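User: Teach me something about this protein's shape.
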Amino acid sequence: MKRIVRLLKVVGDENRLRILKLLQTRDMCVCEIQHILGLSQPAVSHHLRTLSNQGLVDSTKEGLFINYRLALDRLPEGERKILQCILESLMGSEQVERDRDLALKITREEVTGKK
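Assistant: First, the predicted structure itself:
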C-alpha cells in the first residue's frame, strides 16, 4: 500500500504529470522539457529525479545529454494500471495537447544551439 500512496503523491504534481505525458510522446532531455514547460533547469531536474526514484522514468546518456523515457514496463502491474488510467484521463487537456505539439515540433538543436 505504501508504494501506491507514494505513486499518487508523485503524480499529484501538475508539472510531473506534464513531464510524464511529454515522455509518452518521445524520449527527451532536460533542456527540451525545460523549454516546453517554461521551468528552470533545477526544477525540471528535481521533478525528473522524483519520477526516477519512483521508477517511472529511466535515463540514458548520449554525449553531453541525458535522455529520459517512461519506464512503465518496470512497474508492478497494479501501479502501471493506475498510472495508465491517470495518463489516459489527461487526453484532450488543452495544456497536454499544447505540450505534445511543441514536443513534436522542437528539436534539441533548436533549444540548445548544439548538435
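Now, about its shape. The chain has one domain: 2-108. The mean pLDDT is 94. If you'd like, I can walk through any region in more detail.
User: That's plenty for now, thanks!
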